[in-house]
Amino acid sequence: MSSFAGRMKEYPNMSLDRFDRENLHARAYFLSHCHKDHMKGLKGPLLKRKLKFSLTVKLYCSFVTKELLLSNPKYAFWEDHIVALELESPTLITLIDEASGEVRHWVIITTHIGFLVEGAQGTVLYTGDFRLAKGDASRIEPLHSGSRVKDIKSVYLDSTFYDPRFYQIPSRETCLHAIQGLVQDWVSRSVYHTVWLNCKAAYGYEYLFTNLGDEFHTQIHVNSLDMFKKMPEILSHVTTDRASQIHACRHPKGEEFVAACRLPCGSSSSDGTPLNIISIKPSTMWFGERTQRTKVIVRTGASSYRACFSFHSSYSEIKDFLSYLQPVNIYPSVVPIGRTHADVSQLLKSMCRDVSSSAVVYRPLGALKRTRPEQQTHGEDLEEEERGGEERDLEEEERGGEERDEGSVSNSGPPPRWEEFFTTEILTDSQPNSCSHTSPSHSTLTGSQTPELFVDDFVKLPSPSISLSAGRGPSQADGMLIQSEDRCQGDALTNLDAGGEECGSHTHQSEPTESQLSSDFDIPSTPDSHRPGPDELSDLYRRLAAGEEVVTRTGSQSL
Fold first, then answer.
1. pLDDT bucket at 465, cuts 50 / 70 / 90
2. Bias regions of kind Acidic residues — which residues (predicted)?
3. How far apart are alpha carbons 392 and 381 in whole angstroms?
4. Are strands 522-523 and 466-467 parallel, antiparallel or unpaired?
5. H-helix or E-strand containing 279?
């Protein structure tokens, strides 16, 4: 039962699904559907009088709602004041205050679940009685702007079953199949076996009527066809012929029906044979009050059944819907039985978007380094090794970058000195040198951002013996050449294959220079090269500083 007062905080000049009390002063009215709890005051004398003296007050609804409303003579006075809105089509509504001349503009979009209002106070969604399965919100076009979800400020929600007691409600399809099975079992026994669908309202069960009619190639008996005359998709599935085996007729108000006949229409067989009648009452609240899990259809008497059929979304479906929209405010329109308005509001509070956390927060991307690839087993293909290693490197680097970023934020300290970035580390005899099989690669030691090359274990490549620094200014360290380590590499490979010690424990390791530590690329040694002495370097630097041409000749070679 709707408890919505009719007014939205953002747009108080309109009233939705409520037409009495303070809503009499509204400048526009909206009706989501024709259920009594959403039509309070719609045929009241005060509102009827207001329409006589106003030319601008209108009632906006869908085409189906308009036809259903005007099919009842009690609402005939609305005929000149109803505006039918096309489904899922934006409509610009301009309201002019007759006294002050104030003009307001809204864009209204009628959807299957209610009205979407867009105006100066933000986008607001009002839902009538709606049932959405999980994931269905992404298919409602008016809720989206291009590929993104619209920024919804407020949702006025059908919260009928927003209670953990109704966490899961069988879908309409599940209920339909269960009802079809029961009807099939009953009417197939004889022509005297009849089913009565005990529906509490004349409108809203068309889904059952159309599907049962198609399944059993028959028409459903109803009291009147007036409300369906302009809805041909439903009209062909209903009839006023009492001879039908499936009835959805209702008891007339103020009239007593014969106790011996349980059909409201008083139908009986043509030959006087008593009818065997079962009643099926679609409902949901009854199932929610059960303390134990039940089936979709439960037998409640000798010839009466309850079927779990709901017009409203379940607790889990509403949570899925709100999680998708992420509105700033959520206002319940219905208070579940056994709950208070404060209880429901508190439950919905956790589904509101936190405005304070919606600001954009900057996070650095982290270092763009790759870790050293793991050693591969013998016999693997080189191409597969490279591809697999790159994927592992990217994953490890992303994790490592995030850890370093978090650590840098939490452990704030004095900035490092400039000299710390260029301090070279001298390896001792007890530490593995560059010939070690388990030592990290050259670029890993130096922090180089150059990706490592992946080498198959079957291919034994000699370690580089010369490292040059690109783009560095002249210095003593840059001009030094390092002696070849080919012999050391060969010894290391031999010792490793034989299970012996590494050559690093027997060969003296020279102190690595800056150029060796900072270079990004390693190149093979130049033939006939030698380490220049201090005198040669001093003369070389002096001539370079003077701008003289430097030509060093060794035999027939010129540098």
1. very low
2. 381-405
3. 17
4. antiparallel
5. strand 276-283
Domains of the chain: 14-165+315-357 (3.60.15.10), 170-308 (3.40.50.12650), 420-527 (no CATH)
User: Coil, strand or helix: which one is 83?
Assistant: strand
What is the residue-averaged pLDDT of the chain? Answer: 75
User: How far does Cα 421 stand from its chain's mean position?
Assistant: 46
**Residue linked to tokens 């920024």:** 151
Nearest to 132 by CA among 405, 402, 317, 380: 317
Burial of 287 (0-12, 13-18, 19+ CB in 10 A): buried
Q: How many CB atoms lie within 10 A of CB 411?
A: 7
How many CB atoms within 10 Å of residue 481? Answer: 17
pLDDT digit string, tens, across residues 118-163: 999 999 999 999 999 999 999 999 999 999 999 999 999 999 999 9
CB 312 within 8 A of CB 131: yes
What are the tokens at 22? 């303070």
Please say whether the beta carbons of 321 and 155 come within 8 A. no
Buried/exposed 416-453: b ≥16 CB within 10 Å, e otherwise: eeeeeeeeeeebeeeeebbbbeebeebbeebebeeebe
Element (DSSP H or E) covering residue 393: helix 382-410
Asked if 505 and 523 count as a contact pair (C-beta separation under 8 A), the reply is no
Contact 389, 454 (CB under 8 A): yes
Tokens of 231: 């809805």
Q: How far apart are CA 515 and CA 422, in angstroms?
A: 11
Cβ atoms within 10 Å of 528's Cβ, excluding its own: 8
What's the pTM value of the predicted model, to 2 decimals?
Answer: 0.62
Q: Which of 183-187, 206-210, 470-474 has the lowest mean pLDDT?
A: 470-474
pLDDT band at 362, cuts 50/70/90? very low
